[in-house]
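May I ask you for just one protein sequence along with its backbone structure tokens in two labelled lines?

_____
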Amino acid sequence: MCIPKTERGDKVELKMKKTLALFLCILFALSFASCSSPESAPSADLKEVLADMESQLSISDPLKVDTEDDLMTIYGIEAADVKQFAGMYSGTGINADEIMMVEAVDSDAAGRVKEKLEKRYQDKENETVQYLPDQYDIVQKGEVRVNGNYVSLLVAQDADKLFSIYEGYIK
């Protein structure tokens, strides 16, 4: 039993149209996906951010946090969790000013860094609440913030100004 040539041609033509339609759909989807840019992750040189903050803020007897040993000793942050960091704090013992910024290696590490910086912040609150009420007010202006893999602890009289500088680099 033979199918007349015209009917066979119609089936082949229909199959070709379906194949062409499928190909065009795939091509359209790929071209649309390549045109949309993925949301870029924030990127900043934290030592540059710290230098900018230093130029705008006066911390008495500033001590830099610039080694992995400092990071572990002061904050309990593991070097393996950190891509880069920059920080400083007042070495007088009576001023609450502190800047600590960390870029974690991934989101899990950022969570661990956040916990450590929140503990440091809580310790600062506890230290100043009864003995240094004027410094306690300064601590209350600061906070720990997370932006992607970036985690910061900023405490200063002008904390809003510091956060503004920081977010200008991070976003």
In short: The radius of gyration is 28 Å. The chain is about 55% helix and 20% strand. The beta strands are 62-65, 82-90, 98-104, 143-147, 150-155.
